[in-house]
Design a protein that fits this description.
321 residues; alpha+beta; OB fold (Dihydrolipoamide Acetyltransferase, E2P); Arc Repressor Mutant, subunit A; 3 domains; 3-stranded antiparallel beta sheet; 11 helices; 44% helix; globular
Length: 321
């Protein structure tokens, strides 16, 4: 029998890192999958982002660990003696740079905590344009999965009955298999409410205001499509009235403040960095004198690192990308 190559999924780091469900085929001889909150049934995945950290984590043996940031978070990438091409690349890689990674999804669970990672088959350097296109394509793929979750929600079915319903509604078999497991495990309604703002933020990172123009009309309307249908209805209040709030309205005030803080952090880092980077404590000191709280600075810096706009070349030092 010919070996069937598993598809390489496109998924944001935020969703991948929230994945806690693993599926092993019966008998243990088949592929192992990670089921994501939107129902992606992942054996292999393809990601593009900013390489922000590389470390050899095993003495006397090559086992490289890297961080690759997309606009929603960071992937943990490994390459060892069985991934010689990836190990060779990471051993000589400059940080930061844009990279593309193709690899196997892995989930490690200890006690009540799960850790996701990618064991790389291929790693190569790439361009910002490729990263931007990957973000848009990944946003579209995630929206497709959310649409399939909506079909599952409307069906009010479970198990094989839900799988059959999804297939009858043109959901592909691999995604249908994932959704029937993801829906009860992650609470599909919560996923449908949480994901649109994350997708919208990722698209904003590479929007035209940053010099990127999506390649198609469909991509140009992706940002507005994200928030359609994202209205969530609260339980009826004591007066029997139904209160409706959109996710975007709920998050808008916090998002605006964070965006302003990020802009101030970027401007301050640019002013302070004379070459070797900016000491983190000095950055906090300057911004506190301008009225920001330390927690606000930390939140802004973390967001900027997740978006691949700055990184920490060594402990306590920040540099712009």
């Amino acid at each position: 029998m010919a070996l069937v190559l598993e598809p390489a999924w496109r998924i944001f780091a935020n969703e991948f890192n929230k994945s806690t469900l693993q599926l092993k085929e019966e008998g243990g001889s088949g592929p192992t999958y990670i089921i994501s909150p939107t129902g992606a049934k992942i054996n292999r995945l393809f990601v593009v982002g900013v390489l922000t950290e590389v470390e050899n984590v095993r003495e006397n043996e090559d086992l490289w660990r890297a961080r690759v940031a997309d606009p929603t978070g960071s992937f943990t990438v490994y390459a060892g003696k069985y991934q010689s091409e990836g190990a060779s690349f990471l051993a000589n890689a400059d940080v930061p740079q844009f990279v593309a990674v193709l690899g196997r999804a892995r989930l490690y669970t200890r006690a009540d905590t799960s850790y996701t990672s990618i064991w790389s088959n291929e790693i190569s350097n790439t361009t910002e344009t490729v990263r931007n296109n990957w973000v848009i394509t990944t946003a579209e793929r995630t929206l497709d999965r959310l649409e399939a979750l909506k079909i599952a929600q409307n069906a009010a079915l479970e198990g094989e009955a839900l799988r059959s319903f999804l297939l009858a509604n043109n959901v592909n078999e691999l995604l249908a298999d994932g959704i029937i497991r993801a829906w009860p495990s992650y609470n599909g309604s919560d996923v449908m409410a949480e994901m649109p703002p994350i997708i919208a933020s990722a698209i904003d990172t590479v929007a035209e205001s940053h010099g990127f123009k999506p390649a198609s009309e469909e991509n140009q309307v992706a940002r507005s499509t994200v928030t359609e249908g994202s209205t969530v209805q609260a339980n009826e209040n004591a007066d029997g009235q139904t209160v409706e709030l959109t996710n975007e309205q709920q998050a808008s005030a916090t998002t605006d403040v964070l965006a302003r803080n990020k802009e101030r952090v970027l401007l301050t880092m640019n002013e302070l960095d004379s070459g070797p980077g900016v000491p983190y404590d000095r950055l906090i000191e300057i911004l506190e004198s301008q009225g920001l709280e330390e927690d606000d600075v930390e939140d802004a810096v973390q967001e900027l690192m997740d978006e691949g706009k700055c990184y920490e070349p060594k402990l306590g030092i920040l540099k712009l990308i």
